[in-house]
Amino acid sequence: MLNPRAKLNPKIFDVGVEQAPIRKGFGEGLLEAGEADERVVGLCADLTESTQMHLFKNRFPNRFVEIGVAEQNLVTVASGMAAMGKIPFVSSYAMFSPGRNWEQIRTTICYNDQPVKIAGSHTGVSVGPDGGTHQAVEDLALMRVLPRMTIISPCDAVEAKKATIAAAQTAAPVYIRLAREKTPIMTTEETPFEIGKAQVFWEGGGKVQVGIVATGALVHRALVAAKELEEEEKIGVRVLNLSTIKPIDEEAIGVLAEE
């Protein structure tokens, strides 16, 4: 059953469950972070609406910079702004950032320990008409190996908003992984979120025989699988939403493995 302590959307398994792109939560979270702290600035590589940064741009035009199709400049300029006391958020498709500008992220942001927040949108294979050239399946591997980099992979738009607001309050570089297509809203405003902490979304009735660790939009599929396994096969399942890839919640995964 759904973990009552997670305070999830009760309509999570309904055919008509509300859906929204995960990237939409980033846009809403960035706007709220900007309203709370005037140090927050936004930079984009000519994909403002696609990455939902237009919400911030429209509200704070004097705190937004359109870099253009120059992803290396995007993160390098952001690093300089961070060194001057700003909290820069940069956005593009993940195939271009970090895909095209990884070395600049490594050298100017991570090695200098600058608190730049990088939003990589249109990740994974679900990019619709954008095609294979835009399917960023390597981004998590690229970013995990970087020193000091925190990596967040929200499961839905609501969690993405929380993650963006939380990222603005950290002093570390952060990568936020976003998806293009609409996906089910699983969480609510009351669902706990903390960087570095995984949450149990599905608790098996009785003995837990299968543990599923999922992240991003695939969390919903994991929940559907858990429900079917318990109802049809009588197999106890526990599903862990791993919203932070780095630092990984070793304790939560260890507890799941022991059970």
What does this structure look like?
The protein has 259 residues and is an alpha/beta fold. The protein folds into two domains: 76 residues, Rossmann fold (3-Layer(aba) Sandwich); 166 residues, Thiamin diphosphate (ThDP)-binding fold, Pyr/PP domains (Rossmann fold), CATH 3.40.50.970. The protein is built from eight helices and twelve strands. The strands form three sheets. A seven-stranded mixed beta sheet has the order 3-2-4-5-7-6-12, sandwiched between helices. Helix 1 packs parallel to helix 6 and helix 3 runs parallel beside helix 4. The radius of gyration is 18 Å and the shape is globular. The model has no long low-confidence stretch (mean pLDDT 96).
Measure the end-to-end span: 17 Å
**How many structural units, i.e. domains?**
2
Secondary structural class = alpha/beta
How many β-strand stretches? 12
Distinct helical segment count: 8
Query: Mean pLDDT, nearest integer?
Result: 96
Question: CATH homologous superfamily of the largest domain, by name?
Answer: Thiamin diphosphate (ThDP)-binding fold, Pyr/PP domains
Q: CATH class of the largest domain, anyone?
A: Alpha Beta
Q: Using the alpha-carbon principal axes, give the shape.
A: globular
Gyration radius, rounded: 18 Å
The oligomerization state is single chain
Q: How are helices and strands ordered from N to C?
A: EHEHEHEHEHEHEEEEHEEH
CATH topology of the largest domain: Rossmann fold
